[in-house]
Amino acid sequence: MNQSYGKAASNYLIQEINGSSPEHIMFLLLEGAQRFLLQAVVAIKRRDITARARMVNRVSSIVEELAIRLDHEGGGELVLNLTRVYDWWLKELFEASQKNQADRLEAIERQIADMKTAWAELDQKASSAPKTTFSIQGMVG
Hints:
Elements: H1 3-18, H2 22-46, H3 49-68, H4 76-98, H5 102-128
């Protein structure tokens, strides 16, 4: 990939993230994790240890970001469950990677795909909800 294309793609991604709802950001993070997991699976099948490690590290960074974004104070049981899922993903990710077990990575990828679908639905609902505006005009006077 040439540098100007890479820079343009990065700038586009930054603009997309900056203008996104929290639901869409979660979708994008999960989409990236899913893409990198699939690349890790391909790397395992090609016996490309370097690429596998790089992709697994990218996935783990995304999962850590997902965990950071959780509202631990107000999230209740859902946050506890998501924390467990993310912890399990990280553990499974590294064990599967060390043992070159593509099927275990594929299982994580399927779970991420399901979660990504749920976030896409939430994003769709949030973006189609009517926006309420508040105007002080006419209230004072």
